[in-house]
Give the backbone structure.
Amino acid sequence: MGGWRTLVVSSEAEVSIRLGNLHIRNADTAITLPLEDLNTLLFDSPRGKVSFSVLASAAQAGVATIVVDEKHLPCGVLLPYAQNSREPLLVNMQVETSEPFRKRVWQTIVEQKIRNSAACLDLLSRKGGNTLRRIARTVASGDSTGREAYAARVYFQHLGPGFKRRSDSSLSGALNYGYAILRAILARSLAAAGFCCALGVGHRSKTNNFNLADDMVEAYRPFVDLLVFSNPPGDELDADYRAYLLGVLHMECEMGKGTYTIATAADETAASYARALSSRNYRLLSLPVLTANSRRTYE
């Protein structure tokens, strides 16, 4: 797995590897960072230059390398490949997993997503938290009664009155940006743990290579919501606000008996899912819990 730092390259910099370290140079300055300290490397400028050795070294170190499109939204991620000796075993278990197990895992994810959504409303001093907690208690195996969709309608009605999730607003763009970062980090963690990300439990699209990451990210989304609605963006997502959104990786969460940052929680979610698959016990899956302490961030 990667380290703990998030690095954003947002200038016309040249990025290379020197003596095993990441070397970044632009017209004015040059810095060198240990690659093992990095968890995430995000290239936020289309005019930068990066060597193939950087991409290979980042993948070998378990660093999630993310690139963005012309709107600065993440559009691609380079994942570590074949780092885990258990990969063939885990992929085989994913393929052979029973339908009841998949349904129970999806139920667990949906329940925690709704509980975290309720906590987000509470922390923002919005109404609706108790309603969501009641909905969470009614989620069936496989969410066969559609509680996730119903909870989402209730949630966004209270989260931002008049807000339309599928709009072109900067608020919606901020959510998309944060969700994309979380998706990339979870894809990195799952791939590094030896999973095939295309094999999901709730998401099963035949054209989506990240179904499993899209499953796990559901419980993480309210952390982005808390960031965005605590401090809404202006008319545009400028560099400062995008850097603010990257702070989601350093937010605190509870998981089991421990406290994690979101970045390290993603690794634990992947590891716990491996344990759940191996034992056929869906209860072993660990997902983040949003608490009052989640407003804290660690740099």
The beta strands are 5-9, 14-18, 21-25, 30-34, 38-43, 49-50, 64-68, 74-78, 252-255, 258-261.
